[in-house]
User: What shape does this take?
Amino acid sequence: MSSYLELTARQRIPAIFDPGSFEELLPPSARVVSPHLAQLDAPVSFDDGVVVGRGLLDGRVVFGAAQEGGFMGGAVGEVHGAKLVGMLRRAIDERAHAVLLLLESGGVRLHEANAGLIAVSEVMRAMLDARAADIPVVALVGGANGCFGGMGISARCANTVIMSEEGRLAMSGPEVIETANGVEEFDSRDRALVWRTTGGKHRYLLGDCQVLVPDDTAAFRAAAVQAIADIRAGSASLTLEGLLDEQAMLARRLLDTAGLADPVDVWRQLGVPDPGAVPMLEADAFMQLAAPYRAGGQR
Amino acid sequence: MNWQTLATQLFPGGHDIVERDNFLSGSAQVDGQTVAVIGTTEHVPIGIEIALAQAQAILETVQAHPGRPILILVDTQGQRLRHRDEMLGINSYMAHLGKCVDLARRRGHAVIGLVYDQALSGGFITSGLIASACYALPQATIRVMGLPAMARITKVPEERLTELARDNPVFAPGPENYLRMGGLHGIWADDLAARLVEALASCAMEDGRMALGLERGGRLLAQPVAEAVRTGGHVRPA
Amino acid sequence: METLQFRFEQGSRPLAGMAQLVGVVGSGNLEVLIEPASLGGACEIEVRTAAVGFGATWQAVMTDFHERWGLADARICINDMGATPAVVSLRLDQAAETLTGGTP
Assistant: This one.
């Protein structure tokens, strides 16, 4: 087993794609760095925290990106966002078999404020453009920094989200919520609560994550290959029917969880037996237990 | 400007918009056609209920009124910051709204966003910013986050951020900055009804905001970088 | 931020291959971009660091690095966010290994 969590973005790419097949676009040697960080006396990175390119995944041409959580929390600035958009547009031009997004991000890079917000919005539009061109978009979420903010939203614009239990997917970070509304609202130092609320197992049970894998690069890779095949068997585009289903699921989620305060209560309400034991289960055991109870999928 | 005054100026032809729990919905007459209107008021935080209600209204429009333009009126302090919203996956509710807007656009509905008071980050990234085009009134403020919270997270002193927010385009919350960066297609200083008619007529399918940012000089790297990745050329920063 | 430049003449060990990047610009860490360059046999190193005022320390680390490797026609660029000398040396060695395929 080789941990996905512990790898850098640059190390994850060759672990997921077919060995030696990935060609990086606009590599660090091009030195395209952020134009905005210097004014805040912050260091730049030669790839602005994201690797984008094209490779083979199980022999098919797949475009991809990996965000580096270690640089500015993986947050999206002007250059970082533009690299993602360029990659997505090229994937459409070249009729890629799929797009794979290894997401690890705090969302909008606050150091780039307005430019970062517009950038994230452009990434979202470009992901949806790819889907409209019938290109499957698959998101992998399994890094230490999680996938938050505008990228947490973007992840749910993908066809499929694959997570490890270590991964987190949400919008606002617990610290932001605690700062705004107090520790009683959300104790950001209660790690168990944070993971019950935003972690892979919970998202899987809610229906926001379609596949849960152990923290292992081979498992992520296999799940990505399968997810792409499953999407390709139908259509990658948004449909009215799919969105109506999703509307119903989200409306039902709201009603069914009225008055429930803790995610364990939500799992109990879903019918999961012995919900308190969920955090302790290994990924495969969890998937077996959870599969019959998880809320309906999305499109 | 409150939403009723705004609606009067936007829709001299009349409207039936109602407000419930700070959520606006209804329709209006614009240049002889009916336009669906959804939005928010009172700088309301966007939680899962309002996100879902907006998505519902979009889906109903797509089903019942093919091709009908949609106007999104934005006034929000951002996403609601509560444990419950995160537990239930507010990112999914936001994404769902964005996907509904996207579907509507691809089915031929012109979708326009108008920031008429406040817009903060998560509160408008899947409404105004995912529309075919977004506009703002001159007195609107658009920001990513409040300065104190930004200072805490970035570890940049609040005084420095305040200084930057005064006149640095990347940080200042005025719509002129978003216009120059390509985030907004225009600012509507007067004759709102006429501006709306023009906007509805000029909706494009592609996301042209990077090109706008370059053309207007507010965002010089995004377009060249995206093009370099897309075509394999070199980035030539202006 | 501070920018420092170093140049070591008469290296003996050339690089082979395309530019490589090691490391991440995070707290206590750094990234090193290494590539072959036509420098008349020299090794040039440019450092952009968030830790200001440590010129002498960097000089010592670079001198040691050149003594270990003696790279010729090599350009190295560093973005640093306060890494210790030990971490800097480690990353430099990792970078040199990628394009020499060897050990110091």
